Every structure is written in C-alpha cells, then in structure tokens.
Fold this protein.
Amino acid sequence: MPETAPPSATAAYRPTARTVPTRARERAAYDHELVHAILDEAYICHLGFVRDGAPVVLPTLYGRVGERLYVHGSTGSRPLRMAGGTDSGGTEAPGLAVCLTVTHVDGLVLARSAFHHSINYRSVVVHGIARQVTDAEERRAALDAIVDHVVPGRSYDSRPANDRELAATAVIRLDLDEVSAKVRTGGPNDDPEDAGLPHWAGVVPLARGYGAPVPADDLDPAIDLPDYLSVL
C-alpha cells in the first residue's frame, strides 16, 4: 500500500485561501496532531461535491491512514465513479473535486442575548481531489481502516470481504493537504451591557456515551464479548 510521509511533531498544514476562514480566524488551526485527533474521534464525515451543476453532500463512514482519508461505497455510486482511477499506464484520472468535513459538538453555549448563542465545537475541513483506489492491496487496507475507525481492532475479528464483495465496493482516497481545523471553547460572549440581564447564561456540556453491547439474536452464547468492546 502506498505510504505517505509521517508529519513531524511540529508540522502544520499550509493555510490557503480556502482554509483561512473569513470570520473568527483566531479559532482556525493547522496543526497535524489536532487535525488527526478530530478526524480520528468522529464516525461520520460529510462529503461535498458538485453533480450536474448542483451541490451534493453525502454523510458517510471514513478511515484515516497517515495523511490520507478513505471513503467507500458501491461501485454503482455516481460520485465514486466520477472520482475516476488510474489507467493501465499508471496515469491518474482528473478525479473529483470535493470538500470533506467532520464536526464534534462539545457544548451548548447559552448567552443572555439571542444573538450570542453558540456551540462549542471542533471541526475539520479538507479540500482536494478525490481519486478512486484501484490497487488491490491499498483497497483492502483502506477497507480495514474504515472498519477499524468505527471499532479499533474489529477488522481482525470479522470475515474479510470476499472477491464478490470487493467487486461491488469502490474506495476513494483524499490526501490531507489543504486542511484546517476550527475550534470554539469557553463560555458566552455577551455584550458588557447585557451582563446584568436576568437570564441564565453558561455552557451545557455534551459528551459521547456508549450503551451496553447487545448481542445478535442468533449469536452463539459461547462467544464472549471481545475485549475491544468491553473498554468502550
């Protein structure tokens, strides 16, 4: 599987016209470690592109391997077909221009004024050209990464895709090149003249939680709960 160079501990993505926000620029960040942490903690991304002149946004699973993101879908999926691939001579197709986003909501920010209500969040936006993965080894590794992104270790504890399933599955990759993170923390930013208003103000924290795993109805009772699920 092709490798991408690991970033140094102090590496940062280069800001571009598309990754520098027009508002609240102080919340933007380009640190590799922060971007990777936000991506690795989420489950769903939103993949945006233009189809027939109209914008389209698809929610989907993804996985990260180094400086690449992978998304999978049906080989009949139009956006995945639009991403093209590599011809017999090794030349890459033009690919599909996309914008991929991931967002965590960490808290509800309640201000004294309606105007200053907000949320605390962490988000990543990736711009780039998505291309279909045609190399068999890279496709299998990408699919394992997507499974392990949901539950680490799960790809080793499930049947790998067979040839028929692989033939029906397309994978696209998006390099982490034009990337930015944006983070809001803290309490409400009320105007000084509103400080004395008789309205509650503050933050309602939000946290992700897991319920107890529920076994399938036909699961053999002799099969114990895997360790990677017991620690969720």
Q: What stands out?
A: Strands lie at 28-29, 44-51, 54-61, 63-65, 68-74, 96-110, 118-132, 169-175, 178-184, 202-205. The chain has a mean pLDDT of 88.
